[in-house]
Amino acid sequence: MSSRPSRLIALGEGVYTVAEVSHILQPTMTPRKVHYWLKKGILGPPIRPTRTGRLTLLTFEQLLKVRTVQHLRDDLHFS
User: Fold this and answer.
1) Which helix (H) or strand (E) covers residue 16, if one does?
2) Mean pLDDT of the 7-13 span
3) Residue 49: C-alpha distances to residues 38, 45, 77 (Å)
4) Which helix (H) or strand (E) holds 8?
5) CB atoms within 10 A of CB 65
6) Which residues lie below 8 Å from residue 66, measured CB to CB, with a gap of 6+?
7) Confidence of residue 13 (pLDDT cuts 50, 70, 90)
């Protein structure tokens, strides 16, 4: 066994990849939009940011923020 600490984050209830968030909020949500809003700071920092070969992980709260921004843009026509 390795004595090196694990850097894995358990994927369970309440943790989502950007692709999963986009899939849940189809048809108007795309990974590009989610990454843009993350970059702008609208959603707060991800649990784990994107790095080579690693997925960006978001919380359930961030999924709800994405849905709220999506609603403001698509349904209420906010810019």
Assistant:
1) strand 15-17
2) 54
3) 10, 8, 29
4) none
5) 16
6) 21, 25, 29, 34, 37, 43, 58
7) low
